[in-house]
Amino acid sequence: MVRRESWVSRGVWERRAARRWSRRKLAERAGVAEGTIANIEYGLCHTGIDTLEAVLRELGCELVIKEVD
Q1: Biggest CA pair distance of the chain
Q2: 23 with 37: CB under 8 angstroms?
């Protein structure tokens, strides 16, 4: 599997690993499929904002969307 790393994929992986959670545990807590977590971490899909927000919330992060000039 080819990894297409991004700041999102790396951030999710690092925070999950720091908590020593399996992908399954994070998926269960966030209410998403385990494959969704793997896809996010490998940068294989562009997940919906609701899904990403749920995953990040479980990792103690907040999704903030800002307008830039």
Answers
A1: 39
A2: yes
DSSP string for 4-52: ---HHHHHHHHHHHHTT--HHHHHHHHTS-HHHHHHHHHT-----HHHH
At 69 the pLDDT is 82
The residue written with tokens 């959670």 in the block is 21
The per-residue pLDDT for 32 is: 97
Residue 28 tokens read as 């269960």
Q: Read off the pLDDT band of 17 (50, 70, 90).
A: very high
